[in-house]
Amino acid sequence: MNKKILIIVGSTGGHYIPATVLAETIRKISPSISIIFAGEKKIKNLEIWKEKHFRFIKIPVIKRPKKLNFFLFPFQLIYVGIVSLLLIKKQKPNLIVGFGSYTTAIPILAGIMLKQNLIIHEQNYVAGITTKILNFFGAPVALSFSETQKYLLKKKFYITGFPIREEFYSEKSSISLNSLNLKENKTTILVTGGSQGAKFINSLIIKTIPLLNPLKYQIIHITGKKDFENVKNSYKKFNINCYITDFSLKIYDFMKISDIIISRCGAGTIAEITSIKKPAILIPFKFAGGHQFFNGRYCDEKKACVVIKEKEITPQKLFDLIEKVKENIEEFKLNFKNINIADTKGNFAELCIKLIR
């Protein structure tokens, strides 16, 4: 009988993109292994799994309780737990892989209760409370950053790196600056807020553009769907070369043709930036439990990127940082040799296959 892996996945790109990379890599190495995804009903971009011919099972997930529904929380907990137990019993996976935040905690706990073979992946530099709890109860953890091991309650871990798409392995891009109506002789700044966009960064860039010399700089701006029209209209006020889009699954092409990146610092973004060795100005999302700041600080301490908090950044400070990075860009690039968190060799996939043999 063919082996089966069940991947429990969170609802943001930082979770489902590396999970999909893992699944594709496993399928390449061992095509006979069946892979099923399970996750939250509201997960966007379900077409990703459909296009790649992976089965996706929608399951309820536990939410952080709010004041109005706090009394319902225990019942939700029980319901999600029962559904998770039934899912595992029905699918009978040889391995359960957890790729997410607190939303995947109950299914993984159900797997622990059923004494299933399982592993969870911690994307961030600082292990989240869910990872710590699951690790305490016996779940081994695959780590993106080797330094994360100091945050675990039990020392059951593997250092695998963060799975990134193979398109990041090469320096070649399928698009050119000319194809975007941009110039080869200007410094290209890529602005992105992650898979869901970032209103704060969008607004900051619009306020910074008047400080940028349009003869020296040009911008590729990925706005996120919610803020696209507003940002697009704002650019019409300025005489600066730009390419604006709301979302792209091919961000690797934009990164490759850019010189400087301005971004949030989710673990996936850090892995992608470091794999293609592009200097970045990182602005951590302040409501991400502090994880993004520590991800960014890791690169800052290696002197490959610059991290600055939202409360500290202003248009003038951002402009000064852009100028600083531009002037020292080769030095920043050289410092990437001290960073190795991207899983470009299929380490996590090989580990998962090993765990079910």
Model description:
By secondary structure, this protein is an alpha/beta fold. The radius of gyration is 21 Å and the shape is globular. The protein contains 13 helices and 15 strands. It has 2 domains: 4-161 and 342-355, Glycogen Phosphorylase B (Rossmann fold, 3-Layer(aba) Sandwich); 168-338, Glycogen Phosphorylase B (Rossmann fold, 3-Layer(aba) Sandwich), CATH 3.40.50.2000. Helix 4 links the parallel strand 4 (95-99) and strand 5. The strands form 3 sheets. A 7-stranded parallel beta sheet has the order 3-2-1-4-5-6-7, sandwiched between helices. A 6-stranded parallel beta sheet has the order 11-10-9-12-13-14, with helices on both faces. The protein has a two-stranded parallel sheet with strand order 8-15. Helix 1 (13-29) crosses helix 13.
Output the keywords.
single chain, 357 residues, alpha/beta, Rossmann fold, six-stranded parallel β-sheet, globular
| Envelope shape | globular
Report the sheet with the most strands, covering strand number, pairing sense and barrel closure: 7 strands, parallel
The value of Rg in angstroms is 21 Å
The counted number of beta strands is 15
CATH class placement of the largest domain: Alpha Beta
